[in-house]
Design the sequence.
């Protein structure tokens, strides 16, 4: 997707440059025709070349539009400024190796992160339904000269058990919502993986 978009942008730029060059040639041919230096057929040929150049621009724009749409499907956002792609030192030897390498695609990695985050949210919401055991401690100093004690240290350690008896449905609702979100994220991950795999398969077929 990246390479195709960069390529089609370059093709469009070249087509526009070529159109400008041919347009200047047409103007020069018309000037020569006015002074009788060339025939009418020369002007017609120059006009035909300009028409082909304009047609090439329209085709390049259509190709670029398709590449940018595919880029959005794969990456998840519109393409911005793209640097020239680097030449790979070595391609995967098999299509299975290519699919395995595609697991590091940014779209797949982002979807995997969202799945993990949703699981953490379920655990966090469910923890509010569980009893909690806390260790408590207290350390105090006392000074009572009347009792003949200049200072006195007191320490206390204890355990505090908290059992949630009534949550009003709020926590259960949070757990259900978190589980629904997890299912959605898992579905998005599967869609991302399938999309990247289709792209890899198509690219592999073109290389074969």
Sequence:
């Amino acid at each position: 997707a990246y390479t195709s978009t960069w390529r089609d942008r370059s093709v469009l730029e070249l087509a526009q440059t070529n159109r400008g060059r041919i347009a200047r040639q047409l103007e020069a041919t018309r000037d020569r025709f006015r002074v009788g230096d060339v025939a009418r057929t020369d002007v017609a040929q120059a006009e035909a070349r300009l028409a082909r150049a304009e047609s090439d621009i329209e085709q390049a724009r259509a190709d670029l539009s398709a590449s940018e749409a595919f880029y959005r499907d794969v990456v998840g956002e519109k393409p911005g400024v793209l640097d020239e792609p680097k030449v790979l030192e070595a391609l995967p030897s098999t299509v299975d190796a290519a699919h395995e390498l595609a697991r590091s695609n940014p779209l797949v990695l982002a979807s995997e992160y969202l799945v993990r985050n949703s699981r953490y949210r379920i655990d966090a919401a469910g923890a509010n339904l569980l009893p909690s055991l806390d260790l408590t401690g207290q350390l105090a100093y006392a000074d009572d000269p009347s009792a003949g004690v200049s200072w006195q240290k007191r320490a206390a350690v204890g355990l505090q058990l908290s059992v949630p008896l009534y949550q009003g449905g709020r926590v259960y609702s949070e757990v259900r919502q978190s589980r629904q979100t997890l299912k959605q994220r898992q579905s998005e991950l599967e869609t991302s993986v399938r999309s990247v795999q289709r792209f890899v398969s198509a690219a592999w077929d073109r290389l074969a």
